[in-house]
Amino acid sequence: MKFHHIGIACEEIPDSMEEIKKIYNVISTSPICYDPLQKSTLCLLSTDNGLSIELISGEMVKNIHKKGIIYYHLCFSVPDIDIEFKRLIKQGLIPVSSPKSSLLFKGQKVGFLYSKCGLIELLEDQV
Predict the structure, then answer these.
(1) N or C terminus: which one in the chain shows less Cβ crowding within 10 Å?
(2) The domain spanning residue 80 has which CATH number?
(3) Which of 33-37, 81-85, 88-92 shows the lowest mean pLDDT across its residues?
(4) Cα–chain-centroid distance for residue 65?
(5) Would you state the pLDDT for residue 127?
(6) In whole angstroms, what is the distance from residue 29 CA to residue 75 CA?
(7) Is the pLDDT reported for residue 46 higher than 70?
(8) Host domain of residue 61
């Protein structure tokens, strides 16, 4: 598993994007898109120091954002999401969302698991 990005829950992506730009030198921004499979509006920012930040708004994060929680998940890229998903379940992680295609990542599969350290997203490497 290789670290890919941090996911941040937000109410409005453009507002959060402006706040992030006050802190980091953002060098690229994906288009803001709504992914019906994830039931979320998403955007990926890349910074000059190599950090990638995914902004997530919508129903999926509405309740946690109301509680003041903004750090939503850590994402790791993996060569085979199905194998890694099963391995982590055997290690005691709880599946939250099984692997499925992601609009933000151009069809690459993503899946979510819960660990005692928080929510983890797996992103299958591009083929």
Answers:
(1) C
(2) 3.10.180.10
(3) 33-37
(4) 15
(5) 61
(6) 18
(7) yes
(8) 2-124
